[in-house]
Design goal:
The protein has 11 helices and 5 strands; from the N terminus they run H-H-H-E-H-E-H-H-E-H-E-H-E-H-H-H. It is an alpha/beta fold. It has 3 domains: 37 residues; 154 residues, Glutaredoxin (3-Layer(aba) Sandwich); 53 residues. The chain has a 5-stranded mixed β-sheet with strand order 1-3-2-4-5, sandwiched between helices. It is extended.
Length: 282
């Protein structure tokens, strides 16, 4: 019969630490105090011996530094300031997350690429340079600065990548769902991290779009809200009409299919009957 040990490894470790602390004399001997302190720290460090990399204090900072090697580390304190007027590509991660760590190199390469686009010796006037694009990283385990930012964006799974215009505090950022290798990230960023027409950037609008936006911007909050409700009502109407049309088409299809199967069945019966007649005559 398998015996269950009365104490877990963590319980034994805690008990050992408690015994050490109790046996330490309460004196002003600095050497003894330092020895006791180092012994306790050594025991605590051993507690993480079997933990995955990224959960123990020794490796957390090392992994954080890897994630922030070329990308900009963002927190609840600096987010609005650093992303103001920027197109952003953001990675929310945790040091203990294997998938986060496996894409760290590709993410740094992406950040390095955008840094290189803004080097002074490059003769180009590209609006989509590092001046406009920010590649950032947010550690969701960094309490409270990183945690609060992750809570602000309602981050659940890790890693999560968000992209888009950071105007209005990043309220309209979208989630990236593609591959996480460098080439895929780079291709996506080049195609999507571009200035787009919107109330925050009328210069990117065509004349017709700009005129339409300006007409909306001249309306009151209540009027805009009424417009939204009206359009949402129209959307519901479109969906309802589509479902009704689909149901009608489905009914017609089912009727046509039944009729076709009946005709096939009768044809096969006739063929069988004729073959039997031929066999009887021979």
């Amino acid at each position: 019969m398998t015996m269950t040990p009365p104490f877990s490894n963590s319980s034994i470790l805690s008990l050992s630490l408690l015994i050490l602390l109790c046996l330490s004399p309460n004196t002003s001997n600095k050497n003894h105090a330092m020895t006791s302190k180092h012994t306790s720290a050594s025991i605590l460090t051993q507690a993480f011996t079997y933990e995955p990399e990224g959960r123990d204090p020794a490796s957390i900072e090392k992994i954080r530094a890897l994630h922030n090697q070329d990308s900009i580390p963002l927190t609840i304190e600096n987010f609005d300031e650093l992303t103001s007027g920027k197109l952003v590509f953001l990675k929310f991660f945790a040091p203990y997350c294997p998938h986060c760590n496996s894409m760290a190199k590709a993410w740094n390469e992406l950040a390095s690429y955008y840094h290189s686009q803004n080097e002074p010796d490059m003769e180009q006037n590209n609006e989509n340079t590092e001046n406009n694009v920010l590649i950032g990283s947010i550690d969701c385990t960094d309490s409270p600065k990183g945690k609060e930012l992750c809570a602000r964006f309602k981050i659940i799974g890790l890693p999560t990548l968000l992209y888009g215009d950071a105007s209005f505090g990043g309220a309209y950022l979208e989630e990236y769902a593609g591959d996480k290798d460098f080439q895929s990230l780079k291709s996506f960023a080049i195609e999507n991290l571009v200035l787009s027409c919107g109330p925050w950037d009328l210069n990117a609008c065509s004349p017709d779009s700009r005129e339409e936006l300006q007409s909306y911007m001249s309306l009151s909050y209540s009027t805009l809200d009424s417009r939204i409700k009206l359009m949402e009502s129209r959307l519901d109407e479109i969906e309802t009409n589509f479902r009704n049309e689909f149901d009608t088409m489905q009914k017609n299809y089912d009727e046509q299919l039944t009729e076709k199967e009946m005709k096939v069945l009768r044809a096969k019966e006739n063929i069988k009957l004729i073959k039997e007649v031929l066999a009887a005559k021979s």
